[in-house]
Automatic annotation (TrEMBL):
One of its GO terms (cellular component) is membrane. It is a single-pass type II membrane protein. The keyword Methyltransferase does not apply. Keywords: Glycoprotein, Glycosyltransferase, Membrane, Signal-anchor, Transferase, Transmembrane, Transmembrane helix. InterPro entries: Glyco_trans_8 (IPR002495), Glycosyltrans_8_dom-fam (IPR050748), Nucleotide-diphossugar_trans (IPR029044). It holds the Pfam family Glyco_transf_8. The lineage of its organism: Eukaryota, Metazoa, Chordata, Craniata, Vertebrata. One of its GO terms (molecular function) is UDP-glycosyltransferase activity. It comes from Acanthochromis polyacanthus (spiny chromis). It is found in: Membrane. Transmembrane segments: none annotated. Belongs to the glycosyltransferase 8 family. This is Glycosyltransferase 8 domain-containing protein 1.
Length: 365
């Protein structure tokens, strides 16, 4: 090689490096990565500088990301805030399936159509509580008996029949990351679902033990009962929180997951199989049984939880909450209530109710 040739090669390399640096700075690394993804559709380099309206108009193409969420009348503001956070933080083609009760449907339709959410793709499906007949206790002391919608997640393939993969989210979440990333989490072969484990998660660090903060199976199931003993599960197995589920619906159907879950619901109405200290949702124990050692993992940052528990404000730093991809206010103190931690984060995504029937409780309002 002549000296001149070498010089030329160096010059070209320098030019390429320069272009890469410029491009990354302009587009930002995450946008850069998106551009590489074939399903993301065409992304304009300066899209973020278009007006919000123009951005919405650039119709979302690419693979649909189905998200199932439930809408209960007394917490409709939660669903709206969760949906808004998902939509604003992603360019993906998200399609919501919202399960609600008959009496709530009109209120929800109005809220979604008369506000900035009108372009968000969604369908509203009426959940029929009769579906649960004989499978949940009629005991009025069981709080959950009055909340049939919490069982909707057991019936995922019935509500999203056309999809192979789908996401279920509790309503008391805010998504700060790009939902596409959660959707692309891979499920192991033979697994029908992925959850975030309670032990190794960032949320579990410094967890306050006691009612409502169990992190293993014995906190949810009564291991003295024969039906539970027979399963041969280890009582100290780490539990998981089913407020965020990524599901392979093909596997779900193949393994009859819904029927298996119903089986455990029915058994529990005959004999109380769930832990006496069970403070969290009674939808969790059947899932723990059916998915025992048969589920994939969701990145802990995609399910930062316990924001609704006492002391959450001390447990998490503002930086950690900012870095979280998904925040979950499970526990007693909801962000639309008066005394919750980090309700300012939730407020950023809330879209006021055009009917005025729902309003977050705030000290100065
Ligand atoms: C990159 O873009 C994301 C959202 O598109 C933004 O949150 C983040 O702050 C940006 N990072 C830099 C270094 O500009
Ligand atoms: C649902 O509500 C509408 C009125 O909002 C009523 O006409 C209809 O009968 C209800 N359907 C059921 C199944 O309760
Ligand atoms: C879902 O499960 C089916 C059946 O095991 C498998 O063929 C398919 O690749 C899985 N899909 C995803 C997205 O994991
Ligand atoms: C699921 O249910 C169908 C019909 O009830 C049955 O034929 C099949 O064997 C079941 N599969 C599993 C894995 O239990």
């Amino acid at each position: 090689m002549t000296l001149r040739r070498v010089n030329l090669v160096i010059l070209v390399l320098l030019a390429v490096a320069f272009l890469i640096i410029v491009q990354r700075n302009l587009l930002n690394l995450s946008d850069f990565l998106h551009k590489e993804s074939p399903d993301a559709g065409l992304i304009l380099p300066f899209e973020s500088e278009l007006s919000p309206d123009l951005r919405r108009e650039s119709v979302r193409k690419g693979e649909e990301i189905p998200v199932l969420i439930t809408a209960a009348e007394d917490r409709l503001g939660a669903v709206v805030a969760a949906m808004n956070s998902i939509y604003q933080n992603s360019k993906a083609n998200v399609v919501f399936t919202i399960l609600t009760l008959n009496d709530t449907a009109d209120h929800l339709k109005l809220w979604l159509s008369k506000t900035s959410l009108k372009n968000v793709k969604h369908k509203i499906i009426i959940f029929k509580p009769e579906l649960l007949g004989g499978k949940i206790s009629n005991d009025p002391h069981t709080l959950e008996a009055a909340k049939p919608l919490t069982f909707a997640r057991f019936y995922l393939p019935a509500y999203i029949p056309e999809a192979e993969k789908a996401i279920y989210l509790d309503d008391d979440v805010i998504v700060q990351g790009d939902i596409q990333e959660l959707y692309e989490t891979s499920l192991k072969p033979g697994h029908a679902a992925a959850f975030s484990d309670d032990c190794d998660s960032a949320s579990a660090k410094g967890i306050i033990r006691g009612a409502g903060n169990q992190n293993n199976y014995i906190g949810f199931l009564d291991f003295k009962k024969e039906a539970i003993k027979k399963l041969g599960m280890r009582a100290n197995t780490c539990s998981f929180n089913p407020g965020v589920i990524l599901a392979n619906l093909t596997e779900w159907k193949n393994q009859n997951i819904t029927q298996q879950l119903e089986h455990w619901m029915e058994l529990n109405t005959q004999e109380d199989l769930y832990s006496k200290t069970l403070a969290e949702s009674i939808t969790t124990p059947p899932l723990l049984i059916v998915f025992y050692k048969r589920h994939s993992a969701i990145d802990p940052l995609w399910h930062v939880r316990h924001l609704g528990n006492t002391g959450a404000g001390n447990r998490y730093s503002a930086q950690f909450v900012k870095a979280a991809k998904l925040l979950h206010w499970n526990g007693h103190y909801k962000p639309w209530g008066r005394t919750s931690s980090f309700s300012d984060v939730w407020d950023k995504w809330y879209v006021p109710d055009p009917t005025g029937r729902f309003a977050p409780v705030r000290r100065h309002s």
